[in-house]
Amino acid sequence: MEQIQLYTKLNYLPIDLKSEVNDFIVFLLSKRKKEIKKKTPKFGCAKGQIYLSPDFDEPLDDFKDYM
């Protein structure tokens, strides 16, 4: 449905129903805002989940011929 159609239908409503429509629109927008809200990660939340071996920076045995 296009905006112009919604606007013309809204103009035919009595004032009390326009108020209800406005309240419903506010409700829908607040509901959507809650759904969109992103969770931000907390500092240190992945502590202990990532591990690097102690020889991570050591040269690989596969490249000994090239060094």
Question: In words, what does this structure look like?
Answer:
The structure is a single chain. The protein is mainly alpha-helical. Helices cover 48% and strands 0% of the residues. The chain has helices spanning 3-12, 15-36. The longest helix is centred in the middle third of the chain and has 22 residues, at 15-36.
Structure at a glance:
With 67 residues, this protein is mainly alpha-helical. Helix content is 48%, strand content 0%.
Top keywords for this entry?
2 helices, 67 residues, single chain, mainly alpha
Secondary structure blueprint with pairings:
Elements: H1 3-12, H2 15-36
- The radius of gyration is 30 Å
Quantity of strands, as a count: 0
β-strand percent reads under 5%
Overall pLDDT, averaged? 85
Helix fraction?
A: 40-55%
Distance from N terminus to C terminus (CA atoms, Å) equals: 69 Å
The biggest sheet, with number of strands, parallel, antiparallel or mixed sense and barrel status, is: none
Poorly predicted segments:
none
What letter string, H or E per element, gives the SSE order?
HH
Using the alpha-carbon principal axes, give the shape: rod-shaped
Q: Number of helical segments?
A: 2
Structural class: mainly alpha
